[in-house]
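User: Hi! I'm working on a homework problem where we have to compare a predicted structure to a textbook description. Could you give me the structure for the chain below?
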Amino acid sequence: MSTFEEMKYGPLGKAVEAAMPTSEADPIGVWAASLSLYSSAISRSVRLESGRPVVVWTVLAGLSSRGAKGTALRTSRGILSPLIGGYLDGRAEKGVASGPALVSWLAKYELDTKGTEGGMDGRGLLIEDEWSESLAQQKRCPKFASVFRTAWDGQPISNRTKKEGLTVVTRPLLGFHGHITPGEWKTSVTSSKALGGSFNRLLPVLVEQSKKLPFDQKPVYPAVPALKENYRWAISEERVISFTAEAGRYWDQLRDIIDERLAGMPELLASYMERSAEQVYRVAAVLTASEKRTRISLKAVKAAWAFVSYSMTSVEKLVRDAADQSTKAMKTTEELVRDVLARYGGEASSTILLRALGTRINAAALKEAVVKMDDVQVEKLNTPGRGAKPIMYRLITPEAEKVTEESRKPLQVETETAPVLRIVESEAVRPRKARKRPKRQVAIPTEPVAVTNPILSLL
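Assistant: Happy to help. Predicted structure tokens:
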């Protein structure tokens, strides 16, 4: 894997290197965060020769306790605050998790600056230090992924509502930086979104704590006057960044290398890296602008390639590790059905069975699976009354099957010496018919009965 020494370039690289002795962060993490923040700040005036924005979107992937992701971001902000502190305070946001909200947020900046002396300014920076939470919320909005991708491309994004009508961001300039753990990557970064291109706009990098410093060590951010001066140059007027002939030829070679590398990967894995060539171009353009130049040198391309190559290796590890964890032996539908039936003593109704299986199996899948299972018997009970008849599922073991076959013999006829047949039932006793109790009869006298009243006899 590439090292920070291969990635650092120009005054921005010197600034990160100078801050590292008093930071526990991974220098590659600080470098990644700095590229995101700085590229977002200069994106209003600096663009590629193709017209696309120079924003670089990065993600730090590391363990909560040892990744030092937050430390990396704080170190980067400490370095860049003298340059872009006002921009970070006014334009950085988090928790924008729907397409309409993203459009409205950037549209507000364009509307507020339209007609001003400096011109329209639609820059905005999303900093998601709990990216997995935002990803969970974004799943509820079917529009977010497409709006997010289009913003990276620099194409207009829009949203229509009944109340406000059509809202359009003509030139979205969206920056992004996020944090995630490898475990969260496994559950939050879905393969369907990856195949759709939602994650190949990002440059994830694996990070870990670089060192442990004394509790009273205060961070020190050395001043880099050249970086401040070059930033003012970058935003003073429009700057179009292009390759020198030598750098362009090398970039063409890199495109072939990247294509060959992706060709040997599974489709899902390759889908995370399909824009690696343009990522090299963007990183090289940002490094060139930080050096107060508009022509990308061979050295800048090599430094950019070292960073993008490290990101590609990081993504490969993240995706393969997530796949390895997901390939634990998963039980088949048939095995799950047997487990539930055994848990209920070998017999359960369809209602109980489906409830125990939860969301893993529906009624149709259960019926389809049981048809193929020789050791499960299905019986529809003939219960009195209206309504659906309950369906019972029974697990048939060799011993239970023998008992079941015996119990299914309904009648056995035995002959005796007398010409009378006696019917013997194997297991169940035939219910006796309830005898009707005779009604109590009350005798009704045919002649009137004389009633003697003792009181009247005294009169």
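For your comparison, note the following. The first strand starts at residue 46 and ends at 48. The longest helix spans residues 298-326. Good luck with the assignment!
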